[in-house]
Design brief:
Length: about 425
């Protein structure tokens, strides 16, 4: 713009004032403003140092949790939280396997918090944070939340520890004694960043534990399969061979000795089967048909006077519907009850299998046998259950003695 143009613009707009670069003056630092600037710099430095301290604490705790998820790691969490926030007490609440929330770690003298203490979900800061999954600042901790036993503390922050899916894994709480400064939004923000790191570490540790459990499960299944498919079959063949050898011998003592070896092998096979059962039992929960049958065995053991054996085969968990599971459980319960009442047995073995959509439940004992099973109303009920599903129920007395019950139905014939 030329000088003449500028002059014309000024005349057209008399309220404007032309300002040249030489008119811009920077206010020099005065004696009064210097302390304010210095204090601002100190605060900025303190803020940066605090954030750096929290980051270092997060990294250290994460390494500790991933390397050794033990009580010492949890204690480190609360110590760092109390130190980083300049708090007088801290506590860590985590969920138990029984879906209860308990104090797993604490820091600070006279906190009034006890390790292992159950958290009141209605009248506690931790309980409120668990329900809301949000950070909460409290300015009157004693009277509003905790009650008389924590009157030494006023300010508090509760921060949720969240998993990757947003679920609450725990709560980290910090508190300051009465008379000390209240916590600020910055304190809550720093604690929240810290708990996010804790949540990520716990998630990673849980994922690692799941992978390790899966690896262990696969290894157990492989061992169980080898025992069942190879070891047991070889031992069984050896036992049968010994029985044949015993029959060919002429001296009674030799026959008795060889048959004794065969009996020992049978007992070894029984123990291996029980080991396989124990190894594979980690697959079953109490609501599955396997879990429910295990419960029945526990309940019947006292009446029987011994612990019966049980074997499972086939995709029972996936292939058995709820009402069919009810029938299977009833069959095993009634069958074992019949053994306890009439058989005078020392051993009983149950086998439950699902092969080609056919469910078979077999209960065999080494008792005195049974002459007229139809007269027993319980066994008659088992027959009716089988016939209702288009199946069959048989009772027999094997040559080696005892009684054998077999209940068979086809899944495709379910009503």
């Amino acid at each position: 713009m030329t000088d003449s143009q500028s002059t014309q613009s000024m005349r057209a707009h008399p309220h404007l004032r032309a300002v040249s670069i030489t008119d811009r003056q920077f206010e020099p630092m005065t004696q009064e403003s210097a302390p304010l600037i210095a204090r601002s710099n100190v605060r900025a430095l303190e803020h940066a140092n605090r954030r750096r301290g929290w980051l270092e604490a997060s990294a250290d705790v994460t390494r500790k949790l991933l390397a050794d998820h033990t009580q010492s790691a949890l204690d480190l969490v609360v110590r760092y939280a109390a130190s980083g926030a300049d708090a007088d007490a801290a506590s860590l609440v985590l969920k138990t396997l029984d879906d209860e929330w308990t104090v797993r770690a604490r820091s600070g003298e006279n906190s009034g918090i006890t390790l292992g203490e159950l958290v009141d979900p209605e009248r506690s800061l931790a309980g409120r944070v668990i329900r809301s999954a949000e950070i909460e600042l409290v300015d009157d901790y004693a009277s509003e939340i905790a009650g008389a036993r924590l009157t030494a503390f006023t300010a508090a922050i509760g921060a949720p520890i969240l998993g990757e899916a947003g679920q609450v894994l725990g709560v980290l709480s910090i508190a300051r004694a009465t008379g000390r400064p209240l916590f600020t939004a910055e304190d809550a923000d720093l604690l929240g960043n810290f708990t996010r790191q804790i949540g990520a570490a716990l998630d990673l540790d849980s994922a690692r534990s799941d992978r390790e459990a899966a690896r262990l499960t696969e290894e157990r299944d492989r061992i169980a399969a080898d025992l069942h498919d190879h070891v047991i079959q070889e031992l069984f063949a050896t036992a049968m061979g010994l029985q044949n050898v015993a029959s060919a011998l002429t001296l009674p003592d030799q026959q008795s000795q060889v048959r004794g070896y065969a009996v020992s092998l049978d007992e070894t096979i029984r123990r291996i089967r029980q080991t396989i059962f124990t190894v594979q039992s980690h697959h079953w929960n109490l609501d599955s048909v396997q879990g429910r049958l295990l419960t029945v065995l526990d309940q019947q053991s006292e009446a029987l006077g011994f612990a019966p054996e049980i074997e499972f085969a086939g995709p029972l968990r996936l292939g058995i519907c709820d009402d069919l599971a009810e029938d299977i459980v009833a069959v095993v319960r009634e069958g074992l009850s019949n053994v306890a009442k009439h058989a005078r047995a020392q051993h009983a073995r149950i086998a439950v299998s699902l092969v080609d959509e056919v469910v078979t439940v077999t209960i065999a004992d080494d008792g005195i046998g049974i002459d007229s099973p139809i007269r027993d109303s319980g066994l008659g009920n088992l027959r009716r259950r089988a016939e209702y599903r288009g199946g069959r129920f048989t009772v027999s007395s094997p040559a080696e003695g005892g009684t054998r019950l077999e209940w068979t139905v086809q899944i495709s014939s379910d009503p």
